[in-house]
Amino acid sequence: MTAPTRVPVTTRSSAELIRAEEPVLAHNYHPLPVVVARAEGTWVEDVEGRRYLDMLAGYSALNFGHRHPALIEAAHRQLDRLTLTSRAFHNDKLAEFAERLAELTGLDMVLPMNTGAEAVESGIKVARKWAYEVKGVPDGEATIVVAAENFHGRTTTIVSFSTDETARQGFGPFTPGFRIVPYNDLAALEAAVDETTAAVLIEPIQGEAGVVIPDEGYLTGVRELSRRKGCLFIADEIQSGLGRTGRTLAVEHESVVPDVLLLGKALGGGIVPVSAVVARRDVLGVLRPGEHGSTFGGNPLAAAVGTAVVELLETGEFQRRATELGVVLRDGLAALVGKGVAGFRARGLWAGVDIDPAIGTGREIGERLMREGVLVKDTHGSTIRLAPPLTITAEELGSALGTLEKVLGR
Ligand SMILES: Cc1ncc(COP(=O)(O)O)c(C=O)c1O
After folding, report:
1. What fold is seen in the domain 69-314?
2. Which of 68, 97, 286, 326 lies 20 to 30 Å (CA to CA) from residue 356?
């Protein structure tokens, strides 16, 4: 069989495309200077045909790799039949998506949305409504307790309870009703939760903060405290969930089931934005027609891809790979401590690596890795995050770690 002729995707070079963006694209990102034109599995290719190992996986939106065949097939099949109805009508894909997602997560009901931030916003609305209607909090007085160094998205309400001044500066006035306590501190949480508290909202592992893993017992403690004090436990698993840590959900490491689960990123298989609030019936049941919605939320294309994602997770293969290869990642990083790595935190195929500041900033290391064909992204100055597709092989992972060792040694 002859290989298909490769049609160039653009006539402009990477440098020309980067220059072309400058006057016409908002400058809200500082990307690495690589222009991706194609991708397959763990690998991406730039405009000039240079190949890179993707060790970021779209901030965990690409847990199954680029263009996973089962997901692409599900999307193609759906594209040929029905793409959008709006929720004004039913569509024939949504029931199965909700049934299987609820089953996978051990919860009852699904509120489909699109982006992660929308799922967080929706979770906040649901928790407040639950507080007024079920818990009996006086109208307008509901509070939500969150953790310092959180990252839950970029909307006005969400940045209202961020502790990152860059995310907040210039965007006020902010939404009231949030209390911030230190992460991984059950005593502080205990003191902050009172009769007005609708929910405790936390990331089971703080991704953007640098893959910060709480002490063993913290998630169990949050679960116990929320139950005892009569508020909801909302787990934002938008980055930590769907196989990344070696379990379907990061809360499973402590066998904890939250009242409300927020999912996004990998739920869309790297193809379409799909997010969801998944909760018990007595919680999500507070929503009635007209009180919340989204034109695209639960569209048939999203539901078809989301169902195919759930099917992949049902096999357990990706969770198993994350666990097994997580050992390779952890061992590889442990060997670099003192050789340019100041410290690291890892769970499954997810690691925050603190670079010795004497060697370079996270950004500089990211640029050096890029020149050697490995893509990562820095977070918080001197930390880089490793989150490859869960389809990565042991050889590819070993090669990425070898490249890290090489660039740290310069
Ligand atoms: C834990 C968490 N919540 C929410 C979000 C926001 O998701 P999105 O960028 O899709 O709005 C992110 C994105 O990084 C995240 O990591």
Report:
1. Aspartate Aminotransferase; domain 2 (3.40.640)
2. 326
Ligand 1 neighbour 116 (Cβ under 6 A) = yes
Residues of the chain with CATH 3.90.1150.10: 317-355+366-410
The 10s digit of each residue's pLDDT in 185-198 is 999 999 999 999 99
State if residue 237 touches ligand 1 by the CB under 6 angstroms criterion: no
Selected residue with higher pLDDT from 4 and 170: 170
> Is any atom of ligand 1 closer than 6 Å to the C-beta of 350?
no
Domain 317-355+366-410, second-level architecture: Alpha-Beta Complex (3.90)
Confidence band for 391, pLDDT divided at 50, 70 and 90: very high
406 is catalytic: no
Residue 56 has φ and ψ, to the nearest 5°, of -120, -35
In which residue ranges of the chain is CATH 3.40.640.10 found?
69-314
Measured by CA distance, the residue closest to atom 8 of ligand 1 is 116
The pTM for the full model equals 0.97
Look at residue 10 in the predicted model and tell me its pLDDT: 75
Q: Can you give the three-state secondary structure of 152-201, one letter per residue?
A: CCCCHHHHHCCCCHHHHCCCCCCCCCEEEECCCCHHHHHHHCCCCEEEEE
